[in-house]
């Protein structure tokens, strides 16, 4: 009986290995979403932080996070919370602090 159980395990394990390699091969050909790569012009308030050149949304968010970390604007206890300084308040709609999830939607309003 033990031999039958071992044989049953071997037959179920082999197809699973093929599926994972197929997923990896499909994942390698993934292309970035064109909407994220489209260059957008930042507003005047956002341009003070990221620069006036048109940038893709992904680069805008990267530069914004670099600014937040450089100026130590993440809340010490709740890292999801961002405390606004004088440059970030106009971008955040006058709010003193926002969550990182709110930040992306507020930044999108600053891009055209």
From TrEMBL:
Ranges of compositional bias, category Low complexity: 1-19
Superkingdom per UniProt: Bacteria
SMART domains assigned to the protein according to its UniProt record, in alphabetical order: SWIB (SM00151)
Any coiled-coil regions, as ranges: none
Disordered, as annotated region: 1-31
Pfam families: SWIB (PF02201)
Entry-linked SUPFAM superfamilies: SWIB/MDM2 domain
Residue ranges of domain DM2 in the record: 35-112
PANTHER family: SWI/SNF-RELATED MATRIX-ASSOCIATED ACTIN-DEPENDENT REGULATOR OF CHROMATIN SUBFAMILY D
Protein name per its UniProtKB record: DM2 domain-containing protein
Organism: Corallococcus terminator
